[in-house]
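Design job #97: recover the sequence.
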């Protein structure tokens, strides 16, 4: 047995095994793995922000990258169904075939529940509405002892109550107290006007509106109001009776 381990045949066998291992190492680590893992190959991620889904997919495909839409959010000042986020970000270097994850802007804003802001200060109300992604488009003061406190919230000319569904990003009007010096002003006569125009005229004069439809198919015009033709305390409500079905 000892003679075999010191024989020329054994030495040649060992050398053959060593050569085979070296060749295998070279084939695996210098030829197969680099081709399989694209070792050393890289591409720069293109910027697909603000593009449509189709445009983004085509641009990424041209760069030898895959794409996948994984999320959607709503941004009010951004075109719908466009890319608003991408990961990895543009200008990053990645391997060919890497998947770029995309977030798109929703086509329709989601609805939120109108939060309770009545009886809050105007500053607290603004902060709360912004946290619910609602906008304050106007702050309207009326004579009331509750200075700078929210008395009512108007949406599209009508009072909106807490818990009412409203589209995210919508603008509302905050009616707040101006202080103790209340005054009486003449109530506009809006009989004969379309309800929306009449409500706008009343709120512009510093009054609230109580809609009272007759719940019949009609032309939507106001046929009576209370009070009318009189002076009333600014900040109070005016009842508008009109032909039409209420919301």
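Job complete. Output follows.
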């Amino acid at each position: 047995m000892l003679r075999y381990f010191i024989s020329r045949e054994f030495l040649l066998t060992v050398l053959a095994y060593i050569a085979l291992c070296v060749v295998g190492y070279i084939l695996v680590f210098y030829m197969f793995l680099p081709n399989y893992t694209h070792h050393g190959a890289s591409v720069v991620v293109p910027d697909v922000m603000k593009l449509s889904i189709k445009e983004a997919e085509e641009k990424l495909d041209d760069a030898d990258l895959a794409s996948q839409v994984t999320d959607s959010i709503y941004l009010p000042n951004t075109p719908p169904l466009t890319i608003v986020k991408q990961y990895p970000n543009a200008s990053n270097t990645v391997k060919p075939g890497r998947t770029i994850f995309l977030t798109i802007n929703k086509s329709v804003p989601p609805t939120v529940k109108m939060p309770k802001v009545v009886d809050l200060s105007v500053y607290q109300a603004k902060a709360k509405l912004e946290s619910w992604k609602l906008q304050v488009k106007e702050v309207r003061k009326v004579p009331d002892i509750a200075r700078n406190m929210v008395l009512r919230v108007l949406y599209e000319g009508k009072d909106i109550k807490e818990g009412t569904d409203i589209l995210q990003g919508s603008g509302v009007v905050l009616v707040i107290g101006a202080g103790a010096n209340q005054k009486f002003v003449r109530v506009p006569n809006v009989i004969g006007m379309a309800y929306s125009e009449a409500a706008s005229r009343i709120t512009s004069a510093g009054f609230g509106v109580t809609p009272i439809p007759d719940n019949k198919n009609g032309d939507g015009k106001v046929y009576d109001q209370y009070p009318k033709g009189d002076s009333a305390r600014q900040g109070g409500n005016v009842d508008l009776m009109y032909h039409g079905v209420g919301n």
